[in-house]
Amino acid sequence: MPDYQNLLVEQHDRVLLVRLNRPKQLNALNDALMDELGAALTAADADESIGCIVITGSERAFAAGADISAMASWTYMDVYRTDYITRNWEALRRIRKPVIAAVAGYALGGGCELAMMCDILIAGQGAKFGQPEVKLGILPGAGGTQRLPRAVGKAKAMDLCLTARNMSAEEAERAGLISRVVPDDQLVSEALAMATQISGMSLPIIMMIKESVNRAYEAPLSEGLLFERRVFHAAFATEDQKEGMAAFLEKRPAQFKHQ
Ligand code: CO8
């Protein structure tokens, strides 16, 4: 593994576990951390030994937002010319393998936005989600005003973005932002178990499912259905489809070759 300064990275079988690691700053997201995260995820996406990625933080914070001390003196020209806001966040959107956010503690501002860029969010009971940017005189800048309403609906997204209040894990699950709430001390083990289950499936099929579900957000229903139909046809070109169906008929576990 490369020697990261702001991440701790471990591989468990076919799962890459990435821990954001700026504990003194509650994992505030600066350019150095986001560059490393983009590099780690891009490398994992190209690595055939990895089938699923988990991003987590510390017990206290997934990430308390973009680094306010870095942003405080930015001018319009700084952010416009260098594209600070999205330059190194775009790498995450290009990851084709599934990415799970395992959230304990604070996921605020850019931390909540980073979690929302992942495919599945699970949280410890004590997790807190929020978009408190309005208190700083800015607005969410990495997808908060766009992904949050898609996940929880307009009313709750407006409530969170306009009042800056935090949402508990329980409320986040009820609202559809996250898929599971687990005891805090079991968060990473539950995320790894989920990722291990996913990484045991056929990787090309998993990638097709991710791509198809994402279409539901980005295309009208008719286009999404057409896309799904075409990708469904493509599944029959994989060896794993033959193996999966043969295994069912022979009443044995499938042994996918990820091709
Ligand atoms: N940036 C920089 N440092 C931070 C951040 C942050 N977002 N959050 C916490 N820290 C630092 C604190 O300054 C403190 O440092 P120090 O010990 O040197 O004083 C340390 O982390 C611990 O924090 P606290 O003492 O405040 O801990 P508390 O337990 O009292 O409070 C909170 C925890 C509630 C999370 C509190 O730290 C807080 O409110 N943090 C800021 C939350 C916030 O406003 N987040 C939004 C930031 S703006 C944003 O994310 C915009 C995203 C747009 C995309 C950007 C792309 C680049």
From TrEMBL:
For this protein, what is any one GO molecular function term?
enoyl-CoA hydratase activity
- Work out whether the entry's keyword set contains Lyase: yes
Q: Report if keyword Cell inner membrane is assigned.
A: no
Please state what class of enzyme this protein is.
lyase
Alphabetized UniProt keyword annotations: Lyase
What EC identifiers does the entry list? 4.2.1.17
NCBIfam families the record matches: PRK05862.1
What protein family does this chain belong to? Answer: Belongs to the enoyl-CoA hydratase/isomerase family.
Q: Spell out the protein name for this chain.
A: Enoyl-CoA hydratase
